[in-house]
Amino acid sequence: MTLEERPFYIKFSHGLIIIVLLLFLLHVGEHVLMPIAFAGLVSILLVTPCKLLEKWGVSRGFAAVISLLISLIFFAFVFYFISSQIYAFKKDVPPVIERLTLVLQDLQTWVHTKYGVSTEKINNTLNSLTSETMALTVFSSTFSTLSSVFLYTVLTILYTFLLLLYRRLIVQFFITSFTDYPDQVYDVIMKTRYVVKGYLVGIIIEMLIVAALNILGFVILGVKYAFLLGVIAAILNLVPYLGIFIACVLSMLITFTTNSSGTVLGVAIVVVIVHLIDSNFLFPKIVGSKVKMNALATIFGVIVGETLWGIPGMILSIPIIAILKVVFEATKGVQPWSILLGDDLTVEISAKSSITKLTKPFKKKV
Questions:
Q1: The pTM is what?
Q2: Where are the domains of the chain?
């Protein structure tokens, strides 16, 4: 019995089992697969400069090292820029805390007047939130997070170098593993590289444009930390749908402690307008043409990515879904899942012809 002749529930269950196994492996292998996933994305970006250097006579190992160093210098520059802005903001932390304290006191008075909650009870709640035990917990959690980030960064750099060095072996492994379909496997690999590279390049361009628009709007409003907030909002924009709300709340909160209330409203308007421009013009033109996924699959993928891997999972969810879509399109038995992930609204429903065939014998002949 061929795959096409099998009952629909068997074909559907095969695809469902594959997806469940993938999710299970992603959950169990989080600490192993996460740095490899980031390294895979970075290595796809660096394949082009590696090939260019190899054409100039540079050995593959040195080409990988040079390309990796260039990317590290770029990320170091971005990190230095953001750190310098954060350091400038650090000088104004005491006034910000004082302003927030006044706001909390006003809120405390309002709650007491409106709902009759005693001031002593509110103070006890606030004191419990700032207790020594909680401070130690936050400190230990922060230290653990920084340690994990450092370890993942080192592993990502190492994996990126190795993927660039042994990329031909990896491609040959997949082609040899599916000896009956070598051309199809090679096409899937090349299409995956094209889609992911287009997505990453488009995201970088989109992030630069969004940052420039945010900074321009904040500068016009006279926001004190226009560059910092503009860059942070652009980075949070990498998280689909959810990042805009976080960026808006964070920008309004910081602006509220350093500017007037009218400026806070202006910041919210700028963030919303830039997001509308991005979602309706920038993303469809720059990124959407490469990654053709519908909003339902995107939101669901972001939620699943956050559940499995946290914030890194939210960032990696879109390229991983894009890769799965390419693989599903080329694999018999799971092709319907690629339709579910795609955004092609012109797909014709084939059930109409079946209904016509079923009703045809019952039509009276004239």
A1: 0.70
A2: 1-92+116-165
